[in-house]
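subagent[fold] <- orchestrator: predict structure for attached chain, return tokens only, no commentary.
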Amino acid sequence: MVAPVVIIKEVISKKDLRDFIYLPKYIYISYKNWVPPVYDDERKFHNPKHNKMIAGCDVIRVLAYKNGDLAGRIMGIIHHGYNQQHNERTARFFQFDCIDDKEVSYALIHFIEDWAKAKGMTNIIGPFGFSDKDPQGAQIEGFEYLPVIVTPTNPPYLPKLIEAEGYVKNEDCVSYKLPVPQKLPEVYEGIYTRLAANKKIELVEFTTKRQMKPYIVPVLRLVNETYTSLFGFVPMSEAEMKKLAAQYMFVLDPECIKVVQTAQKEIIAFIVAMPDMSRGLQKAKGKILPFGFIYMLRDAKKATQLNLMLGAIKHRYRGIGLNVLMAKALIQTALRRGFTLIDSHLILENNTRMCAELANLGGKIYKRYRIYKKDL
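subagent[fold] -> orchestrator:
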């Protein structure tokens, strides 16, 4: 009997890249809670014309074949700008997917490790992409629940394959699920009443995308200003902001976005949420056109879960209750629209303040995602 052979092939041709992008679709076909990405976004992610971060990084993509059959993929990234800024020699692995086979996972992971060592790197983390805006970590808890948009999705065996190669915890991100409260705690209601009467600030709410559009890039500038200390954060250029705005415009729900500005129209806080559309994305099979967007929007209209996506408060305005002002407005919208649950999206486990606020509102951790590390 011929021993199984694992062959690693670097992605070079257009066909290779297509195989790389669509591989999870085939190997996770029996995993009922796998939700595909938006494939148009995936193609743009791997295209230097659309993803400007590729130019400043060393990038490699490889496929694994076992006995001639496509069996896995992995991407290696060395982000030179981030490494220089943080005085690191860190490589990253990303988009690691494979069949439940230690020979395949060993071949893929060790290929990237050898590649990273040859380039002078001393350690490696992953799954982690170009920045914290890419789906980060491997899911290790909460597999019975569907993932939400822009979060990792993988079968339970994948973290075990990573750990088998000597990887240990670097950072955990958690997701909270909480029932939409009928009423905020009394202390929060008092804060809301005080801020709602403050003439120096204004809560801005939207009913149309046209109203919302002028605020998107200023909101993303606030992200650049306030997220600098977060793990893996890379500031966005103006071009990247406009690209991100265009990418998500069709799924944004104006009523689920709240902005706070001063009387002088300076944006000082915001929160973005969207109705869950995971089932719709499954039905669309990751394709927006020609009819996939209909499944997604239809699913969003009947969703009972609201997913928090992004939020920030300008540093000098923290601690005065702007989070309560926005939360109250969002909860009122959620109750009016019939939402019963809120998903917090990914929060770093060591963000104790945010975790405490969600716990105070009745939230419980129901998913966990792990970014691993290993010395090379």
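orchestrator: received. Logging for downstream: The first helix runs from residue 14 to 27. The radius of gyration is 21 Å.
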